[in-house]
Design brief:
Layout: H1 4-17, E1 21-24, H2 34-45, E2 49-53, E3 74-79, E4 109-112, E5 116-119, E6 125-128, H3 131-147, H4 158-168, H5 177-180, H6 187-195, E7 201-204, E8 208-209, E9 230-238, E10 244-245, E11 251-254, E12 263-269, E13 272-273, E14 277-286, E15 295-308, E16 313-326, E17 335-339, H7 375-383, E18 387-391, E19 405-409, H8 417-430, E20 433-437, H9 443-448, E21 451-453, E22 458-460, H10 469-476, E23 482-483, E24 488-494, E25 497-504, E26 507-509, E27 517-525, H11 526-532, E28 542-551, E29 584-585, H12 593-599, E30 615-617, E31 623-625, E32 630-634, H13 650-662, H14 667-671, E33 690-691, E34 703-704, E35 707-711
Parallel strand pairs: 1-2, 2-3, 3-4, 8-16, 17-18, 17-19, 19-20, 20-32
Antiparallel strand pairs: 5-6, 7-9, 9-14, 10-13, 10-15, 11-15, 12-14, 15-16, 21-22, 23-26, 24-25, 24-27, 27-28, 28-32, 29-33, 30-31, 34-35
Helix pairs in contact: 1-2, 3-6, 4-6
InterPro entries: MBTPS1_3rd, MBTPS1_4th, Peptidase_S8/S53_dom, Peptidase_S8/S53_dom_sf, Peptidase_S8_Ser-AS, Peptidase_S8_subtilisin-like
GO molecular function: serine-type endopeptidase activity
Pfam families: MBTPS1_3rd, MBTPS1_4th, Peptidase_S8
C-alpha cells in the first residue's frame, strides 16, 4: 500500500533539491487523484523531467497507468528482444476523455523492458521484466543525452525532451501508435537533435494518415458521409515557454487538389497551454457531396500559439496534416451504432468489475470502448464488413433511419426520458434494430463489495452493478422487457457453441408471441455465493432465461405516459428482494413532452412521424418497406469482452445482428427456444431498485449533481 501523501512529500523534496530527471516505476488507474496529478504537473512546471512506466496490464488496450498517461510525463512502454512491444506492456488509448471524446496517444516511447539484466539486492545480476524496468532505462538515457549537450541545458524542459525523444525514435514495423507511441528509443539520434535544437512547438501525433497501418484504429475503417465524426486527440508540446495561449481558433485548410473540400473538420482546443502542453481535438466527417466518392482526401490545420519568455514574445505557427480514406456510404444493414455515451468507468466513482469471479481488482477502469476492451469485437465486426460508428451523445443525436442496429453494451449511465421515448419511436417507427449485452446488478451484492480506502479514509460502495439494470429497465419498459437482480454464472452449451456466462443478469419479463425466441440455461446463483462469502457454497442450479429475441409489432407497443412539465424522480417505498426499503429508490420513467418537442430541431433527430408502411429510399435510390425493428438481448457481456472472455461468443453477436439487420433467425435459436417450456423456467420476478447510497449523481451526465432524484436537462446535440 502506498499513500498519496508519501508521493507529495517526495515530489516536494525533488523540487527543493532541483533535480533534473525523476523516474517513477509506479502507476495506477486513478487519474482523478487531483493532489497527485496536480503535483506531477508542478514537477514539469519546475523543469523536472518526469519519466514513468506506462503499466503492465497488456496486451489489453486502454490499460495505461497514471502518471505515465499524463501529457506532461514521458510515458514508457516495454519491448522485447524481437523488436516487438512486449505482451505485458499496457496499451493506449488514454481513457480520461471517454465517453464523449477520444483518448490521446500513449505511451510516448518504448524501449527494452523484457529480461533486462540488473543488479540484485543479494549481489550479482538478476533478469527483470516490466515497464518499471523500461522506464529507468529511458530516465537514464535522458540524463545521458542532456549531459552530452551542456550548452543546451538552459533550454531543457518537459516538452523539449519529448520532442527530441519522439523525433529521434525508430518506428517498429509490427506495432501501432497506441502500442509503441512514437517508437523505440534512439539515444544517438535524440542527442544529435538536441545539439542543433532551437525552441519550437510540435504536435503529437505530428499528423494523421488513415492509410497507414501504424495509425490504427484510424486506418481500420474509412470514413463515409452521414456518419459520426472520427475524433483525433492531439497533444501540443510547447518547448518555448511553460505557458502559452491560442487566441484564435485553429483553421482548417482543405487541399482542393486532393479532395479536401469533401471533409468537414471541427476543432476544439485548450486556450491555455500549461505546463508546456495543451490539446486539440479534431472531429473529422465527410460532407454529403462525398457520399459516392471512394479515395483519399487531404488538408491541414493551421495552429498559432503565442508564448512569452523573459525578454521576448513569440508567435509560432504549426501545421497538422490530415489524410483520410473515404468510402461510399454503406447500406443501412451494414451500419452499426455503438453506444459509448452510457458507459462509465473508474474513476470518478466506484464502478465494479463485470465479472465477480475476478476478486483481485474490484474496479472497472478500462473504459468499455470499442477500441479498448472490446477491440477484438471491433475487428470481428469489421472483418464481416460492418461499419461501426461511435455515439458519444444522447440518443436524440442520431438519425435512426441511417443505422441497422444500435449496440448497447454494459451501460452504467442513466438515460434521459427523451432518450427512452425516442428509442421506442426509432424501433417501432423507423425499423431500428437493438442489440443489448447487459451485466449483473444486485444491491445486496454491491454492499458486500464495499472496501475501506486508505487514501480517502472512506468506505467505498459500488455506485451501480456491472451494468445499471434499473436504468436499462426504464429504457426497455416500452418494449415489455425487463431484467432481474439475479446474478447468474455457469458454462453454457448451445449446439456446437460453448461459452462462460459470467456474473450476468437474467430476463425478468419478455414479450410473448409466435415469433418470440427465449433461450434458457441451467445456471448457478453467484449472487448467493457472494452474499454468503463462501466459494464452496452452491445452491441447486436454476433454469433461467438469458437470451431473448423479438420482432416488435404495434400490439406490443406500451404507451409511455407524458407527465408534468418537470418530472421528478420518485422514491420507491417497496421492499426489494435482498434489500431494504431504506436503501432503494427508483426513477419515474415519464417523458417531458415539451422538452422532447423542442429537441426535434436538433441535429440527427427525425422531424416527422412515419408509419411502419412508409416507403423510404436509401442513398442509391432503392425502395424498401419500413417495418418495426427487432430486439436481441443477452444478460451478460463477458463473452464478447477481451478482458473476461473465456470462450469468445462472436458467433452470438453474428446471429444477433443477422436477426436485427436481416430478420434471419439462426437455427441454434430455433432449436433451443424455450418459450414452449416456460414451466421449466424459474419464475422469480425481482425488479432491481437503485441504492440510495449511490453517488452516481456526482459524476453522471444525466442525473442532477445536486439532487439524485431529478435528471438534468437534456444535453444538446452539437452541430
Amino acid at each position: 500500500v502506498s499513500y498519496t501523501s508519501w508521493f507529495l512529500d517526495a515530489f516536494n523534496y525533488a523540487m527543493f533539491k532541483k533535480i533534473n530527471v525523476l523516474n517513477l516505476s509506479i502507476g495506477g488507474p486513478d487519474f482523478m487523484d487531483h493532489p497527485f496529478v496536480d503535483k506531477v504537473s508542478e514537477l514539469a512546471a519546475n523543469k523536472i523531467i518526469t519519466v514513468s512506466a506506462i503499466g503492465n496490464d497488456g496486451p489489453l488496450y486502454g490499460t495505461l497507468n497514471n502518471p505515465g498517461d499524463q501529457s506532461d510525463v514521458v510515458g514508457v512502454g516495454g519491448i522485447n528482444s524481437d523488436e516487438l512491444v512486449a505482451k505485458f506492456s499496457s496499451r493506449g488509448m488514454t481513457t480520461w476523455e471517454l465517453p464523449n471524446g477520444y483518448g490521446r496517444i500513449k505511451p510516448d516511447i518504448v524501449t527494452y523492458g523484457s529480461h533486462v539484466k540488473g543488479s540484485s539486492l543479494n549481489g550479482g545480476c538478476i533478469s527483470l521484466s516490466g515497464t518499471s524496468v523500461a522506464s529507468p532505462v529511458v530516465a537514464g538515457a535522458v540524463a545521458l543525452i542532456l549531459s552530452g549537450a551542456p550548452k543546451k541545458l538552459s533550454l531543457i524542459n518537459q516538452a523539449l525532451v519529448k520532442q527530441i525523444l519522439a523525433e529521434g525514435a525508430v518506428k517498429l514495423q509490427h506495432n501501432n501508435i497506441f502500442e509503441q507511441g512514437h517508437g523505440k528509443l534512439n539515444i544517438s539520434k535524440s542527442l544529435e537533435l538536441l545539439l542543433s535544437y532551437e525552441p519550437k512547438i510540435t504536435l503529437s501525433p505530428p499528423y494523421i494518415d488513415y492509410s497507414e497501418s501504424y495509425m490504427w484504429p484510424y486506418s481500420s475503417q474509412p470514413l463515409h458521409c452521414v456518419g459520426m465524426p472520427s475524433i483525433v486527440n492531439v497533444t501540443i508540446w510547447n518547448a518555448i515557454s511553460v505557458t502559452g495561449r491560442i487566441t484564435s481558433k485553429p483553421e482548417w485548410q482543405p487541399n482542393l487538389d486532393k479532395n479536401g473540400d469533401l471533409l468537414l473538420v471541427e476543432i476544439l482546443y485548450s486556450q491555455i497551454l500549461w505546463p508546456w502542453t495543451g490539446w486539440m481535438a479534431v472531429k473529422i466527417s465527410v460532407t454529403n457531396r462525398g457520399c459516392y466518392y471512394e479515395g483519399n482526401a487531404e488538408g491541414s490545420i493551421k495552429l498559432v500559439v503565442y508564448s512569452s519568455t523573459q525578454n521576448n514574445h513569440h508567435r509560432h505557427t504549426v501545421q497538422f496534416p490530415i489524410k483520410v480514406k473515404i468510402a461510399p456510404k454503406p447500406p443501412r444493414h451494414k451500419r452499426i451504432l455503438w453506444d459509448q455515451y452510457h458507459n462509465i468507468q473508474y474513476p470518478p466513482g466506484y464502478i465494479p468489475r463485470d465479472s465477480l469471479k475476478i476478486k483481485s481488482d474490484p474496479l472497472d477502469w478500462r473504459g468499455d470502448h470499442i477500441h479498448t476492451n472490446f477491440r477484438d469485437l471491433y475487428h470481428h465486426l469489421r472483418n464481416r464488413g460492418y461499419y461501426i460508428d461511435v455515439l458519444g451523445a444522447p440518443y436524440t443525436c442520431f438519425n435512426a433511419s441511417e443505422y441497422g442496429s444500435l449496440l448497447i453494451i454494459d451501460p452504467e449511465e442513466e438515460f434521459f426520458d427523451e432518450e427512452i421515448y425516442k428509442l421506442q419511436k426509432d424501433v417501432f417507427d423507423y425499423g431500428l434494430g437493438v442489440v443489448i449485452f447487459a451485466d449483473w446488478y444486485n444491491t445486496t451484492v454491491m454492499k458486500k463489495m464495499q472496501f475501506f480506502d486508505e487514501n480517502t479514509r472512506e468506505w467505498w460502495i459500488p455506485d451501480t452493478g456491472g451494468a445499471n439494470i434499473p436504468a436499462l429497465n426504464d429504457l426497455l419498459h416500452g418494449f415489455g422487457i425487463s431484467l432481474s437482480d439475479i446474478v447468474a454464472d455457469g458454462y453454457i452449451q448451445l449446439g456446437e457453441h460453448s461459452f462462460y456466462y459470467g456474473s450476468g443478469t437474467t430476463l425478468d419479463t419478455f414479450p410473448q408471441d409466435d415469433d418470440t425466441i427465449l433461450i434458457s440455461a441451467l445456471l448457478n446463483d453467484q449472487g448467493a455465493e457472494v452474499i454468503r462469502k463462501k466459494t464452496d457454497f452452491k445452491e441447486a442450479p436454476n433454469t433461467l432465461p438469458i437470451i431473448g429475441l423479438f420482432q416488435m409489432n404495434s400490439r406490443h407497443r406500451i404507451k409511455i405516459d407524458i407527465p408534468e412539465e418537470f418530472p421528478t424522480l420518485n422514491v420507491d417505498v417497496g421492499i426489494e428482494l435482498n434489500g431494504t426499503e431504506n436503501d432503494i429508490f427508483t426513477y419515474n420513467p415519464a417523458i417531458n413532452k415539451r422538452v422532447l418537442l423542442q429537441s426535434t430541431i436538433q441535429r440527427g433527430q427525425q422531424e416527422t412521424n412515419s408509419s411502419k408502411d412508409e416507403i423510404i429510399k436509401d442513398y442509391v435510390g432503392v425502395q424498401t418497406l419500413r417495418k418495426e425493428g427487432r430486439v436481441a438481448i443477452m444478460g451478460d457481456s463477458n463473452c464478447i469482452d477481451s478482458i473476461n472472455a473465456e470462450n469468445a461468443c462472436m458467433w452470438l453477436i453474428n446471429a444477433f445482428l443477422e436477426y436485427t439487420m436481416n430478420s434471419h433467425t439462426a437455427s441454434v435459436f430455433k432449436k433451443y427456444n424455450s418459450v414452449i417450456q416456460q414451466s421449466r423456467i424459474a419464475k422469480i420476478k425481482t425488479h432491481p431498485k437503485r441504492l440510495k447510497t449511490s453517488k452516481l449523481h456526482k459524476y453522471s451526465k444525466v442525473v442532477d449533481v445536486n439532487n439524485k432524484l431529478r435528471k438534468r436537462s437534456l444535453t444538446k446535440c452539437t452541430v
